Amino acid sequence: MKTLLGLSVLAISMTTFAQSHYAYQMKTINNPEVGTTHVKAKISAEANSAEGVCKALGYSTAVPNSIIRTSSYGFGVIFDNNGNLKNAAVNHYYVKEVTCLNYLGVSKQRIDVFVNPTFPGTETKYSAEQSDGNGICINLGYDGGAKTTARTSSYGPSLIIRNNGEIQGMAQNHYYVKTLACASNDGFLSELPIFDHNRSDYPLNYNFGSRGKEIADTVIEVAKAIEPYINNQEERQIDDLKKVAVRLKAQIESGRSINHVKSTLDQLELKLVDSEYFIDKHLETDNLDRLAMKLLTAREYLLSMIDFIDADYTQDMGPLY
CA of 59: how far to CAs of 93, 99, 168, 181, in Å? Predict the structure, then answer.
């Protein structure tokens, strides 16, 4: 009787263990999509394994052969078996349903989807006929992306980008890139505000991304305002300053990693220091003195952001804002 009772208890405990560790960690996902912004991309049902899709969605593995496809088709992303972005297809059926196991809460990569992408800070579109999608993603500041892109039905002047992200040239009558999927492998920037209650010396209770864009906009505004008053040497320095500010804004808007943004913040600080003597001189004029306080405030915000990252994120360059 004792033995039977012991076996009964063991059977109950094993059933409870199985339920808590397996049955409740299986999930069927309907019409899955990827994309960290409001723009999403569907997932190809023709060129993906269930394992790769589930890992891309933040699960540890999948129920094999659990993909069911839709009756509709179009632009869909393709992952390798580790859940990393591999490519995309233009006319594939989409994943309608897939069953995943053991949610980890962290996707393998950050995937951003762009519709009608343009070169940062401009309205210039990318050629869909000769540009490499992976190269365009690198050009936009990502680690890489899907080589295949969807194209628009319109055409005109557009940039041709090589696989390594370099600009090859300009095409005059090429179809434009319509849909593009890019990937980042390291920590990325979210849109959550910082509320650091443990550090009184860094009361940064504002949206970090918005503040970074505000700094970039201020620098660009000041640079444009003083251009009529500067000499050739100063103009070269101002052009360099504007380029860094435009890059900072583009990186924040596209959700680049803290590593990339921190590097650009440092560059912007150095460019401001190098140009400080003549910027301050020109801002003393009656027409521009309203910008002097605005630029001073932006500088202080910039230094605070750099100090915060240096102090709190030297070991962990994960999500910051």
Answer: 22, 10, 39, 21
How far apart are alpha carbons 313 and 248 in whole angstroms? 19
Residue 51 exposed, middle or buried by CB count within 10 Å (0-12, 13-18, 19+):
buried
Half-sphere exposure (Cβ direction) of 101: Cα atoms closer than 13 Å? 11
99 alpha carbon, distance to own chain's centre: 27
What gap in Å lies between CA 57 and CA 45, rounded to an integer? 14
Map residue 64 onto helix, strand or coil: coil
Q: What is the pLDDT of residues 41-99, one digit of tens each?
A: 999 999 999 999 999 998 999 999 999 999 999 999 999 999 999 999 999 999 999 99
Task: Give the C-alpha separation, 166 to 138, whole Å.
Answer: 8
Q: Quick check: 171 and 182 in contact, CB under 8 A?
A: no
* Listed residue (256, 259, 254) closest to 316, CA to CA: 259
Q: At residue 186, what is the residue type? A: D
In angstroms, the CA 177 to CA 131 distance is: 9
